[in-house]
Structure formats: structure tokens, C-alpha cells
Amino acid sequence: MLVLLAGIFVVHIATVIMLFVSTIANVWMVGSSNSAIISSGLWLLCNRTCTQLPVSSQDEASLKAVQAFMILSIIFSVMALILFIIQLFTLEKGKRFYMTGAVMLICWMCILIAVSIYTARFTDMVAFSTNPHHGYCFILAWICFCFSFIIGILYLVLRKK
Question: What is the pTM assigned to this prediction?
């Protein structure tokens, strides 16, 4: 049981770190141009230097929604981690980690919404580039999506012994 708790805790911390990296770094889409590699993220467009991400007025609300849901996912994931630690020491034996699981599943839903919007609206939108493809931040976000779902379900099933 202790090994399972430690494993869940380590995967949860790894998920929080990956969420931070995927939200902060600007490598959601990558393309190449004649002179350099171009990458764009949620905040900036980077070639040799980084500039504000050029977004049309139609897509601005979508980009703000992706940014907001990724930030919310980080907040809910950290809240779930803190709640797990609190429940670990205060929960009676035999009880389940319902609150932690529910908060983690809310984090999962925020990641799903953010990455789905980005996939639908911003795939292939690296300006002045050829052969655009997804960067590591986009892939990390989908990995966090899977991990947060698994962790959320495990928290709901897990009992304190």
C-alpha cells in the first residue's frame, strides 16, 4: 500500500511539473523556414527572437480560453496534490480520497478542453513555415491528460489503510 501511495504521489508530482513546462514553454507547434526553426506556443512566436503571438481577432478568444484552461489545470493539479497530503494525515482509516480524486478529474477536464481547442483552432498555424508539426509541449499536455485521468480514478478507488 505504501508503494502504491508513493507511486501515485510521484506520478502526480511529475504531472504537475509537465503541466508547468507545457504551459510555459513555447513549443506547441514547430515548423522550419529557410533560415531557422520557428516555434509557437500559447504565449509567443519564436524564430531567432520571440515576439508576441500574432493571432487573428477570430482566434483571440480561443487562444485566451486555451491559456486560461491550462492555467486552471495547473491550479487544480496543485490543489489536488495539497489536498492529498492533507487527507493522507487527517482521513480516517478505510475512507476514500474522494475530494482529491474529484479535484484531479476537474484538472483532467481542463486539460481536455484546452488541448481540444488548441487542436481544433491552432494546428498548422505556424506563420511562414513549412512542414509544421506538434512540439513537445503539445505532447506533454496530452500525456498530462492521460496521467491526470488515471491519477483521478486511482484517488477515487484508493482507500486509506
Answer: 0.89
